[in-house]
């Protein structure tokens, strides 16, 4: 997979994780629709756990970004 695609996904994950960590109830409420509404409601009722997941999401995304190739092309060099 191209490094720019992976980096774009990582940036989105970092943003989502930051919003989840800072505003767990509000962020889950905004996504409480469709087939995943029950899941978002469950997370909305557990802001501490939701915040922890957001922080972990940011940490994993940063770790992935740190391991990416430094140049355009494949995301990871063999």
Describe the structure.
The structure is a single chain. The protein has 78 residues and is an all-alpha fold. The longest helix is centred in the first third of the chain and has 20 residues. The two termini are 13 Å apart. α1 packs antiparallel against α4. It is built from four helices and no strands.
Chain-wise SSE layout:
Blueprint: H1 3-22, H2 24-30, H3 37-44, H4 47-66
Helix pairs in contact: 1-2, 1-4, 2-3
Keywords, please?
78 residues, mainly alpha, 4 helices, elongated
What is this entry, summarized?
With 78 residues, this protein is mainly alpha-helical.
Sketch the major β-sheet: none
Order of helices and strands: HHHH
Taking pLDDT < 50 over at least 5 consecutive residues as the criterion, the unreliable ranges are none
What percentage of the residues does DSSP assign to strands (E)? under 5%
Q: What integer value in Å does the Rg equal?
A: 15 Å
Distance between the termini: 13 Å
Helix content: over 70%
What value does the average pLDDT take? 94
DSSP strand count: 0
| Helix vs. strand class | mainly alpha
Tell me the overall shape: elongated
What oligomeric state is this? single chain
Number of helices: 4
């Amino acid at each position: 997979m191209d490094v720019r695609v992976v980096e774009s996904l990582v940036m989105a994950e970092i943003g989502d994780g930051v919003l989840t960590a800072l505003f767990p109830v509000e962020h889950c409420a905004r996504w409480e629709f469709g087939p995943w509404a029950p899941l978002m409601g469950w997370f909305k009722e557990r802001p501490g756990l939701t915040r922890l997941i957001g922080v972990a999401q940011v940490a994993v995304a940063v770790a992935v970004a740190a391991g990416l190739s430094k140049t355009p092309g494949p995301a990871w060099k063999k």
